[in-house]
Every structure is written in structure tokens, then in C-alpha cells.
Automatic annotation (TrEMBL):
Native species: Brevibacillus brevis (Bacillus brevis)
Keywords: Repeat, TPR repeat
Gene3D superfamilies, per database record: Leucine-rich Repeat Variant, Tetratricopeptide repeat domain
Protein name as catalogued: Tetratricopeptide repeat protein
Keyword Repeat found: yes
Pfam families assigned to the protein according to its UniProt record, in alphabetical order: TPR_11 (PF13414), TPR_8 (PF13181)
Keyword hit for Signal: no
Intervals holding TPR repeats: 20-53, 188-221
Length: 544
């Protein structure tokens, strides 16, 4: 091959700028071509480049809605309006459409009204009004008046409360819902969710009062009647429950959300034939449904003896949510039963069959489940109200291990509510383990032992170096000097020895001479949960 030895011509390199605008344009083009996977990838890349750009988030929300992921779309939109650009009022209209597609017409109405209140002459005014017309007239729902401007935040507050309920932050939901019903006593959805919040925290007396208040405002409110049936069942008030159940069995709701509520209530109360009837009506209507709806319908079919139909609906749930793996386990459960295996009762929950959600049997590795599983949250709060003293003791320890704001609030409320000095002391110890502030007017004799003021380094010298554990002491000193500021910023503990115990635990793990957290907690005179919290922080560090 001949080489050109002539003059080398200088070329110009044009910088190909791939900024957020580039990926937004690219994502839009993919969206127009119905290539949703590449569109989503492009919009997510734009967000990576400009995470505070509200427009990037809105494009992602639009693409998610196009693919039928309406809940995920709304999650993004809530973040936009709450975090990135509070002036972007069109977000409320987008959310209204998403809720309409989810058949949550109540929330669709609220968001459409919110949009019109925020921007009465906005670009989507006509579309918002058409959506409201559809809700009010086509679905035969009575229109609700526009709230005055000082109550305009009731919709976003109510949605925040609903999300708190779904995620197990029941005390937080209680506070928000109380504010809403005080500001707008006619707002029935908040009353219904308030009764549920009271129920989840074990305050059955206020749950009943709230239901009665709701029924005073609207005598035939189906959500309130369903909540009442569950509460009567819990209290074993058979005569009242039978009368109410006879009435509910005659109800055939038109609106999908009411049908779903009634179907689920019937299932929870063991009326599986009635639950099956209503789920079947929903699924035959031809509207889009989520995987969990097919799952609940399958449970109602299975428990009412329609096992072939149950398998068909679980197959549908599997198609819609293959990554969850839940439907697969129920399908296998049916096969196991056909081979002679005894199957335990199935609750109406979108969880793997026979999944253990008991907080009493969970290990330290399950703390994340404590934080995120609403069922465990509800059982903890219920046990703190109604359990035996030894159960309350265990719950207080568990809440100190969770250590988030919700757990702290529950312990603080329990401290003020109980008149048992021993339980008060345990509550204070739990607060101390969390690094939380002590309650005001604290009785001096019940306060946890005050810290000596000794630093972590001084404690390492005293407990390790001066006791002949030179290798461990030197290692712990070096780690604390490098990472102590980071570690103490992640979790607050009142006693320096908590960090020494955690450091000694990690040192044992690194040198294959591991001691148990319980042993170290006893050695340093602190709780196992405190050691565990500090260990959790330290194990995120790189000791190589």
C-alpha cells in the first residue's frame, strides 16, 4: 500500500455537544416514533445531566404515561411541583389525566379543580373542564364546589396523606388528615382515610367516631360503610355486622373505585363469593387494571372454589408484573395443593404466599422491611397500644432500631400516654438510642444515664489499648480518625462507647475473630439496637 507523503491537511473537529437539550430532543423524536424504551432512556439521561430541570422531569412523566405507567408518572410529577418548580401549574392537569386513566376519578377531579384554581386561563383550561364534565355527568357524580383560595392546598395535602398511609407512615397521615377535616369538614375522602389511619394505629375508638361523623355527612357513603364493617368484625360485634353485611351484599356500585373498595372489603371479611362477583365485574368492564387487582381477583376466585379462573387471573397478573414473581409463587402453590400439600389461608395482600411479616420474628437484617412494610408498621403501632407489657417492651426496642421520624413520634406519644413508670423508662431509653431529644419536664429519676463526656478516642484507649488489645485499639483509632466525622453525622448516639462497641465488632469481622453484637452490648452497657445502628453505618465504609 502506498503511503501519501504529501502535506498533511489540518482537519477541524466539531464538538458534538450532548447536553440535556440534546437528549430531550432525542427522546421526543423516539416518543413520536413510539419507541418508548429509547425515549425513556433519553429523558432519564437528560435528568442525569440536569437533575433540577423541571422540564426534563415532565418529559419523563409524559413518556411514562404513554407507556401506561400512570402511577410512576404521577410520582415524577409530584416531585416536580414539590421540589423543582412550584409554579409549573400544568403539572396538576397532567396528574388529573393520569388519575383518570387509573380510574381514580376522585383524585382526577381534585387535580383538575386544582389546575383551574391555580391557572384559570391556562392552556389546558378547556381540557380540564371537559374532564370534569366527564366525571360529573357521564359517571353521574354530583359536582363539588370550588374551595376558596385559602384551602387550595387541601388536594395536595390529601394526596400526601394517602401516600403516607400506603407507605406505612400512619402517624404522619393522621396529622395531615386532621388538618384537612378541620379546614374543610365537607371533604369526605379525608374523613374516610382518617378512620383508616386511626384503625392502623390501633385507636379503634376514634376510628369508630370518625366513621360515624362521615356517615352523618353522607348517610350512604360506601367507603365509610365498608370501614365500619371491618371495624365491627374486629370487635366481634356479630349482630351489627350481619345487618350491615346484608345491606352491603345488595349494593352493586357503578364507579370502579367503589366496586374495588366493596370487593376488597368482602374479601377481607371472608365473603369470597361476593368479592369474586365484584372483581369479575371490574375486570369484564374492559378498563385497564393493575396486576394487584388481578391478583386479588384470583384470591377471591381461589377461595370461592373457582381454581381454574384463579390460575387464569394469576397468569394475567404475571404478564403485567413479571419481575415481582408473586403470581409465580401462587401458581406454584395451586400446583402443590393439587399434589396433596395443605395450603394455609391466603390474605388479600399483594405479597408472596405465606410471607412472614411478623415484626416479632424478624432479624436485624429485616430492619428495612420494618421501615417500608405498612403491615409491620401497623402491627407495631397496634401492639404498642393493646399488647401485653412484655410485647410493648419488644415493640419499643424495635422502634428504636427503626429510628426514623415516625418511630420517634410513636415512642414519644407512648411515653406521654402511659402511666407505667417502667414503660416510661423504656420509652426514654428507646428515644436515647435513636439520638432523639428527651421530652420536656422529664422526671429526673427516670432519665437514662447521662453521658460522661468522654470522647470516642478516649474510650478506645480506655477499653482497648489500656486493656491490652493493642491491635484492635490501634485499628479502631485509625478508622475513627479517618471516618469518625462521617459516621457521627449519619446517626446520633449519646454514649461514645456505642461507637467503640461497633468498631470492635467490625474489627472482629475484618480479622475473622467476630464477636456478637449482643456480647459487645453487654460489655459496654448499651442496647443491642444502639450497637446495630452504629455497625450499620460503619459497614458502609471501605476498609481495604
Amino acid at each position: 500500500m502506498k503511503h501519501n507523503k504529501g502535506i498533511l491537511k489540518k482537519t477541524t473537529v466539531v464538538d458534538f455537544k450532548q447536553d440535556a437539550a440534546f437528549f430531550l430532543d432525542r427522546g421526543t423524536r423516539f416518543l413520536n416514533r413510539y419507541d418508548y424504551e429509547k425515549a425513556l432512556r433519553s429523558f432519564r439521561r437528560a435528568i442525569e445531566l440536569e437533575p433540577t430541570n423541571a422540564e426534563c422531569h415532565c418529559h419523563l412523566a409524559s413518556a411514562l404515561a404513554e407507556t401506561g405507567q400512570f402511577e410512576a408518572s404521577n410520582d415524577v410529577l409530584y416531585e416536580v411541583i414539590e421540589k423543582w418548580d412550584t409554579s409549573m401549574t400544568e403539572v396538576y392537569f397532567y396528574m388529573a389525566n393520569n388519575y383518570a386513566n387509573l380510574e381514580d376519578y376522585q383524585m382526577a377531579e381534585e387535580m383538575a379543580i386544582r389546575y383551574l384554581q391555580e391557572d384559570g386561563n391556562g392552556p389546558y383550561r378547556e381540557e380540564a373542564e371537559e374532564l370534569l364534565d366527564y366525571i360529573y355527568f357521564e359517571l353521574d357524580m354530583p359536582p363539588r364546589h370550588f374551595l376558596p383560595s385559602d384551602k387550595e392546598d387541601v388536594f395536595s395535602k390529601h394526596e400526601r396523606a394517602r401516600r403516607s398511609l400506603e407507605e406505612g407512615r400512619f402517624l404522619e397521615a393522621l396529622d395531615i388528615l386532621k388538618e384537612i377535616v378541620e379546614a374543610d369538614p365537607s371533604f369526605l375522602p379525608a374523613w374516610n382515610n382518617l378512620s383508616l389511619a386511626y384503625y392502623y394505629v390501633g385507636d379503634f375508638q376514634n376510628a369508630m367516631k370518625t366513621i360515624e361523623k362521615t356517615l352523618e355527612l353522607e348517610q350512604g357513603n360506601l367507603h365509610a360503610l365498608c370501614n365500619l364493617a371491618v371495624l365491627l368484625s374486629h370487635h366481634n360485634q356479630a349482630a351489627e355486622l350481619i345487618t350491615l353485611m346484608d345491606m352491603l351484599k345488595k349494593v352493586v356500585p357503578f364507579h370502579p373505585e367503589n366496586t374495588y373498595k366493596l370487593a376488597t372489603t368482602m374479601g377481607v371479611l371472608g365473603q369470597h363469593d361476593e368479592a369474586y362477583f365484584h372483581y369479575q365485574r371490574m375486570l369484564r368492564a374492559g378498563r385497564p387494571n393493575e396486576a394487584c387487582t388481578y391478583h386479588y381477583a384470583a384470591i377471591s376466585a381461589y377461595l370461592s372454589g373457582r381454581k381454574d379462573q384463579a390460575l387464569r387471573w394469576w397468569q394475567k397478573a404475571k404478564q403485567m408484573d413479571p419481575e415481582a414473581g408473586i403470581a409465580d409463587q401462587y401458581i406454584q402453590m395451586v400446583k402443590n395443593e393439587q399434589e396433596g400439600e395443605t395450603i394455609k389461608p391466603i390474605p388479600y395482600q399483594y405479597n408472596p404466599p405465606q410471607r412472614n411479616v411478623s415484626w416479632e420474628q424478624a432479624s436485624f437484617t429485616g430492619v428495612e422491611d420494618f421501615k417500608t412494610d405498612p403491615m409491620i408498621r401497623a402491627s407495631l403501632l397496634w401492639a404498642l397500644q393493646h399488647g401485653r407489657d412484655e410485647v410493648k417492651f419488644a415493640v419499643l426496642q424495635t422502634l428504636s432500631l427503626i429510628g426514623d421520624d415516625e418511630a420517634e413520634q410513636a415512642v414519644r406519644q407512648f411515653y406521654h400516654a402511659t402511666d407505667d413508670p417502667q414503660l416510661q423508662k423504656l420509652a426514654l431509653l428507646a428515644l436515647a438510642d435513636m439520638g432523639a431529644a428527651m421530652p420536656e419536664h422529664l422526671p429526673k429519676q427516670t432519665a437514662p444515664e447521662e453521658t460522661t463526656g468522654e470522647s470516642v478516642e478516649e474510650s478506645i484507649r480506655r477499653y482497648l489499648l489500656e486493656s491490652g488489645q493493642a491491635s484492635a485499639g490501634n485499628w479502631c483509632l485509625q478508622v475513627w480518625r479517618e471516618h469518625g466525622e462521617y459516621a457521627s453525622g449519619q446517626v446520633q448516639v449519646r454514649k461514645a462507647v456505642a461507637w467503640v462497641a461497633a468498631l470492635e465488632y467490625v474489627y472482629g469481622a475484618v480479622t475473622h475473630d467476630k464477636k456478637s453484637q449482643a456480647h459487645l452490648a453487654e460489655k459496654y452497657g448499651i442496647s443491642v439496637s444502639t450497637v446495630a445502628k452504629c455497625v450499620k453505618v460503619l459497614t458502609t465504609l471501605d476498609f481495604k
